[in-house]
Amino acid sequence: MELKIYKDKQEVAEKFSSYFVDKLKGRNSFYVALSGGSTPKIVFDVLAEKFSDKVDWNKVHFYWGDERCVPPNDDESNYKMTVEHLFSKIEVPKNNINRIMGEKDPNGEAMRYANLLEIDTDSVEGVPQFDLVILGMGNDGHTASIFPHEIELWNSEDHCVVATHPESGQKRVSINGKVINTAKEVAFLVTGASKAEKVEAVIEQTNGYKKYPASLVNPSSGNLVWFLDEEAASRLNQNPS
To answer: To the nearest 5 percent, what fractions of the chain are helix, strand and coil?
Structure first.
């Protein structure tokens, strides 16, 4: 595990964007699972503003780690957010954008998307392998859309699962833990003081940490990077890298 701690979410976004572009160098293709949330939104802004003409976007194949079961024009859609902050500002082939169809029946869409991942990506022991999975973490310790009350979905046999938000009851389609931990690299983007308690619990494995799905992120490659701002890292003992 590597910790990278920066001043604020803007610096996190800029440093992560540089890291992301470095990963693309020398690659003929790159398969990435995106995250929703406020920090990725800033990352996408930075990528579009500073790297739009410095990256061969033909090489980058975009997928999502999770999506809310809403239409693609809904304000809650992770896809819509990515279009507004990234895709509308860069030259990327439409065929490289592989969204989860949140408007479809959740169970059928989970099956379709799992099949798509199996077709499009290389697999390791039957599990689709991304070059990079980008994750956030909620105030409750959830990641992708695997929530504490449904932590058993992490080890589901299905590569994509249907999750339920614990408060709203909203359905979501999410990749499972096996797909996350099979990725060549996993990067957390976590910012804000509201995340500090769970960041401490997961990283320092304090009492009760195992009930948080984010604690189960442990890629077999060993390549796990946390991008944190000072607020999210405020309870950690470690020094920034």
So the answer is: 40, 20, 40
